[in-house]
């Protein structure tokens, strides 16, 4: 089965649905029409540019270009983690903490997937490396952002409780352990829900794309199971790592709570 090509007219007709939704938002005074239209335009531009970049990468499949593309994706994902937090860490920590939490597990797991599980030839084949890495980062980005946001918001709201625990002789780790557990749990819940609903409530994106491209459904299922396992593991490790780094940053070397290291968005 050949993939059916879409024309600009097809995309334009689909865009009318977004315009209709924006008009409804304006009519109901929801105040979302501008954000909706800007997001749709940004998405279209970004995906178009990504398509052009991937075309270049596919035609110049060298490990240097693949590494450059992966590095750029990590930097953008780190920026998105920071942008989604109501109270972020000040200075370089606001950007670096989320980026580090994403980079370490994502690079480790994508190398495991390419070298041990999928084994394309060459192992850095962009057809596999870039889409899989993007899926890992995209889902993990949400987990880290939610976990850090929950951590900093709760620490700000419960600062008196944390300081009371410190006065009672608890270490920084003990004083914030409950908050850290809740923040890590919040970061992992979305991917757990996605796994629970996959195949029953929704058909995941990778599987749908492969089926539309003509792959046998059973083969598409295998790849989707693999990528869901990788995404879940990556999201869990990234969220746990980000929350731990964030909780440590909330205290100084004398184990004092330092909420002055946070700033409002």
Description:
- The protein has 265 residues and is an all-alpha fold.
- The chain folds into two domains: 59 residues, no CATH class; 204 residues, no CATH class.
- 76% of the residues lie in helices and 2% in strands.
- It contains ten helices and two strands, in the order αααβαααααααβ.
- A two-stranded antiparallel ribbon has the order 1-2.
- Helix 1 runs antiparallel to helix 2.
- It is globular.
- The chain starts with 7 loop residues before the first helix and ends with a strand.
Features of the shown structure:
two-stranded antiparallel ribbon; 2 strands; 265 residues; UPF0014_fam; 2 domains; transmembrane; single chain; Iron export ABC transporter permease subunit FetB; mainly alpha; membrane; transmembrane helix
Distance between the termini: 50 Å
Give the topology string: H per helix, E per strand. Answer: HHHEHHHHHHHE
- Helical/strand content category: mainly alpha
In the predicted model, the low-confidence regions spanning at least 5 consecutive residues are none
Overall geometric form: globular
Mean pLDDT: 87
Helix segment tally: 10
Protein name: Iron export ABC transporter permease subunit FetB
Keywords: Membrane, Transmembrane, Transmembrane helix
GO cellular component, one term: plasma membrane
Family: Belongs to the UPF0014 family.
